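Severity: low
Component: inverse-folding endpoint
Summary: output formatting inconsistent between runs
Steps to reproduce: submit the following structure tokens with default settings.
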């Protein structure tokens, strides 16, 4: 829900309606509402469009989007999630050297 919360925050700050953003993304308003509530995941391309719409850093929005995916994958794995993240971080560090 990190991305959904950010979208709602930006929307509220700028006085933008859900239906306006839905039209911008070429989706229906109920679909947009689900994205904002975290009931449905936005596509990467939609996240980029939202960053452009709100004139904010694309990387920030994509990071929230990806963090939501990671959190979703780790849901229900409280005992192992931190170890799994450490292992993944180590692997990514090795790959990027």
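Observed output (run 2 of 3):
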């Amino acid at each position: 829900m990190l991305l959904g919360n950010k979208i709602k925050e930006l929307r509220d700050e700028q006085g933008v309606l859900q239906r306006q953003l839905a039209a911008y993304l070429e989706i229906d308003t109920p679909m947009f509402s689900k994205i904002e509530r975290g009931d449905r995941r936005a596509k990467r391309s939609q996240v980029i469009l939202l960053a452009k719409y709100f004139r904010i850093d694309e990387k920030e929005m994509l990071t929230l989007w990806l963090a939501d995916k990671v959190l979703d994958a780790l849901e229900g794995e409280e005992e192992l999630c931190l170890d799994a993240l450490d292992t993944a971080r180590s692997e990514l560090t090795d790959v990027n050297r």
